[in-house]
Amino acid sequence: MKKADKYPFSRREFLLGAAAAAFAHPLAAMTGNRPVPRGRLRHASIGVGGMGAGDLNNFASHGKVDIVALCDVDEEKLKKAAALHPTARLYADWRELLRKEADQIDSVNVTVPDHNHFAIAYSAIKAGKHVYCQKPMCHDVAEVRLLTKAAIKQGVVTQLGTQIASSAGDRTAVQWIKDGLIGKVKHAYLCSNRPGAIDNYRLVGPRPDQAEEAPASLNWDLWVGTAPMRPYASAIYHPVKWRAWQDFGTGWSGDIGCHIFDAVWKGLGLSSPRSVVAEVQKSWQDSPARRSDTWPQGDHITWVFPGNKMIEGDELTLEWFDGAMYPPEEIRALYSVENYPAESSMLIGTEGALLIPHGGTPVLLPADKFTGRDLKRIEARNHYHHYVDACLGGENTESHFAQSGPMTEAILLGTVAIRVPGVVLDWDADKMRFPNHPDADRYLKRVYRKGWNIKGAF
């Protein structure tokens, strides 16, 4: 890994994006100022199985989108998508797609495992293509920083796959926070305890020792991509449980964090945290084999953010709970301990509290204090279509990278803290390092597998 002070960009450049998102800084216009001239968007979908199939269908439902190319490392998934888009050109390798389709596409969506997000999105952006990328934006903090800067510099349209950010609930919650309905915010509690989701993280041992033969339809080398080569194992990596492995995923907080953070981040206008610390599942912490390979089944991460006009005092403590860890009972009791939304945010303000259920309607507390108030509500919009419209010259997207990049960086700092549990990591965002615990710096960026380094990056 390169030393932090050798990254080819500064924190100030990066945080201008956060300022653009929170306070309408003029730089915001730089993340969506290259409209497609033909009035139709020529789009390529990279990753068309599972979540990728849903993304593809959403893009195809826009009346001004032409699906011209499809890419997937799994031939069976590619065939299913091709049956619905018979005129699209087909690829297994995204690098070949970007090379051969250089003059034939305007936009791509990146819906693949986390470890390959940066390589694909960065290459597409450097080629001048608009990019819709699934969450989290990247696997590593350093990747997020560089991808954000590239998007701003290239002036392409970008959108993070935080679809709920475009829902009526989240958009209304952002407005209510900015309107000061609960006063200045004193503390924030975020959680993701979705029933059944822990099954995707129920890995209690190291990676398998014996390699299995990958299905004939799956190009395992391309699936592994930038990560270290690992033996194929059925039902362990592809297509679902890769999220539980440090090589490929970012754990529960990285996977869902971008959804739960979004309204809080926008509403409060947060910036880089001052520090982060994590408490993790004890059985995971006590197992060297698990700690070197997998993510824990539950964690409690605490960030301290600098204060601003939306926050009481000079800093805000924000806590995250997932898996087997839950927000304090007294916080859940503000709504209902028994019916507290499994995935949600709770903001405690000087004039009340705001509960933001993931995908639901925000709730002001105590309810009787806000009864009868004429509250402004914001309508939902289609996250995918809004991106397409921006590519065609419309207003900027809900979750453009100048907005969502700094947020993703903060979230991924939490995944670093998980790997050094119990240590308060002071964050020097200017130099991209932890001055009080330099050993943790190595988790800010991976070393890519030989042959997979990306031209122009790092």
Descriptive overview:
Helices cover 31% and strands 16% of the residues. Helix 5 runs parallel beside helix 6 (141-154) and helix 7 (168-178) packs across helix 9. Helix 6 links the parallel strand 5 and strand 6. It folds into 2 domains: 4-165 and 383-399, Rossmann fold (3-Layer(aba) Sandwich); 168-370, Dihydrodipicolinate Reductase, domain 2. An 8-stranded mixed sheet has the order 13-12-11-7-10-9-8-14. The protein has 15 helices and 14 strands. The model is unreliable at 1-9 and 16-31 (pLDDT under 50). The chain is of the alpha/beta class and 458 residues long. The protein is globular and about 60 Å long. Residues 43-161 form the Gfo/Idh/MocA-like oxidoreductase N-terminal domain. It comes from Ravibacter arvi. This is Gfo/Idh/MocA family oxidoreductase.
**What is the name of the CATH architecture of the largest domain?**
2-Layer Sandwich
Helix count, per DSSP?
15
CATH class of the largest domain: Alpha Beta
How do the SSEs run, as a string of H and E?
HEHEHEHEHEHEHEHHEHHEEHEEEHHHE
Organism: Ravibacter arvi
Domain Gfo/Idh/MocA-like oxidoreductase bacterial type C-terminal: 195-289
Protein name: Gfo/Idh/MocA family oxidoreductase
Domain Gfo/Idh/MocA-like oxidoreductase N-terminal: 43-161
